[in-house]
Amino acid sequence: MTITEEIKEVIAKNDKNIISLDLSGASMSDNDVKELQRLLQTNSYISSIDLSDNTITDDACEILAQLKIEKINLKGNYLGDDGVLMLLTSLTIRELNISSNGLTDKSAKQILACINKYKSLEIDNNPRISYQLINEIRNHFLDNSVNFEEPIGIDLGLNIGYKPFG
């Protein structure tokens, strides 16, 4: 799917009242993410994007990491460890949902290394992440929650301290 003209117009308006963009289940591909990046260059207010349940792969993650957004939902896409490692380089993303992708212990270890920067993190339904690492992430995240000004949450599929995304 290409991004509809209606969505393009909404982004182009640069309306301070539109801070969130929901493109979930819209059959967004990596090429659509490239177009989204181009469109968002002129918008200074959208800070949250829901791209869940699309066909986005690791190839789009470098672009996503460069967007000036604080919150991104990538649940149910086709991300693997390499894509998540790219996302972790983002200087602005503070709320991240990468549930139901193809993550393994490789990306879980990197998440653990930079977990302090996240207000909200969801990585549930990634069965190739070991239970031990899930517990380490959960414990580290919860132990460091005092560093954040806002309430935080984490969902590792364990229903502990769950704060829904969105």
**What share of residues is helical?**
25-40%
Rg value: 15 Å
Q: Indicate the multimeric state.
A: single chain
Mean pLDDT: 87
Distance between the termini: 23 Å
Which sheet architecture does the biggest sheet show? 6 strands, parallel
**Proportion of beta-strand residues:** 5-15%
Shape: globular
User: What is the CATH class?
Assistant: Alpha Beta
Enter the CATH topology name: Leucine-rich repeat, LRR (right-handed beta-alpha superhelix)
Please, how many helices? Answer: 6
Textual characterization of the structure:
This protein has 166 residues and is of the alpha/beta class. It has a single domain (5-155), classed as Leucine-rich repeat, LRR (right-handed beta-alpha superhelix), CATH 3.80.10.10. It has helices spanning 5-13, 30-40, 61-66, 81-87, 105-113, 131-143; strands at residues 20-22, 48-50, 71-73, 95-97, 120-122, 153-155. It has a 6-stranded parallel beta sheet with strand order 1-2-3-4-5-6, covered by helices on one side. Helix 4 (81-87) packs parallel to helix 5 (105-113). The longest helix is centred in the last third of the chain and has 13 residues, at 131-143.
